[in-house]
Amino acid sequence: MAASRERVEITVGVRTLLLVAGVGALVAAAVLVHGALLIVFTGVFFAFVCEIPVRWLSRVTGMKRSIAAAIVVLGSVVLITALALVLLVPIVDSLVDFLKALPQTVQDLRNSSELSWLKDSGGAENVQDGANKLASTIPSAVGAFLGVAGSAFTVGLTIFTLIFIALFLLMDIPRLQGAVASVLMPRDSEHALSLWDQVAHTVSRWALGAALIALIAGTVQGCAAWILGSSYALALGLIAGFLDLIPTIGATIAGFILVPTLFAEEGLTAALIMLAVVLVYQQVENNVITPTVQGKAVDISGFFVMLSVTVFGALLGVIGALVAVPVTASLQIVVREATAARRARVAAVRAAEQPAVEEPVPDGPVTQPAAPGAA
Fold first, then answer.
1. Position 67 pLDDT exceeds 80
2. Could you say which of 49, 258, 283, 355 would form a disulfide bridge with 207 (CB–CB 3.0 to 4.6 Å)?
3. Do 118 and 124 touch, CB atoms closer than 8 A?
4. Buried b (16+ CB within 10 A) or exposed e, 58-85
């Protein structure tokens, strides 16, 4: 008897095909305009960063939100520009000198008596080659960073766009909130606006706190390197402060740069002192500075911090790694609010299923209370 073969027909609806085609078109468009999307994302993030200062200024002075937003955004731009005019040239000069001297620093480490066993290792050769390549690309990299060689107009246009995206978004937030509330039921609109406030507060507090903590980290470790006699103290402080913005691993990476540099310049004693400074500061930052400055603005686990830094860093580069924590904290807020009702129902069911707790029976005979009026 021949085995019968059944013919299985798979039908796909038109709506499903249109949905798949729409998603594919959106992905293709995002790939094509990823540069513009990155600018928009950065501008929106900058607007969220300025949210707390704008609210505070508007509440304290009683001025309109639009005026407070203009003062905060444009004032921040003026302040950053003034600091750049004063500090940019010495910082860049120190950083360029440090990077150009990196091959010699690596060679000094390999020639030191304590690390002579690394002289002929393959790993040391790879580090030496990497330092040589990095040093050879420094002039063009710094030139591109400062906007020379014909790219100044593009850099200026990008900064201008970022500033006004943030400014107009801050000014239009009340109008956008009103538009959202107009299409939602009263209870849903209150929930959506509360969620918006939580996300804005989280991002703003994290960014301001992270900038302050990075400034403290760069100042402390840069001053320690200067006291120990390093010729690149300013560059090392800048590196330590910038890497401190990367959560969990940034301070450790900075230690792997600062300590070998001091070892190559000033010897083993200075390197050990620098190592002690790095370790002690990390403990103070983790247990005192960060809880005081940021509180529970980003109360997420270490695993999700590392996961978010890896994923967003791969998607958006350095900017993605820097904003990974507040974006993940914002997503956590959204998920927590979206599942709040279900979690409450689950907790109620579990509480109802728990057996009633019986009161303990006392040991020994139970004495009956005496009747009223008894002798």
1. yes
2. 49
3. yes
4. beeeeeebbebbbbbbeebbeeeeeeee
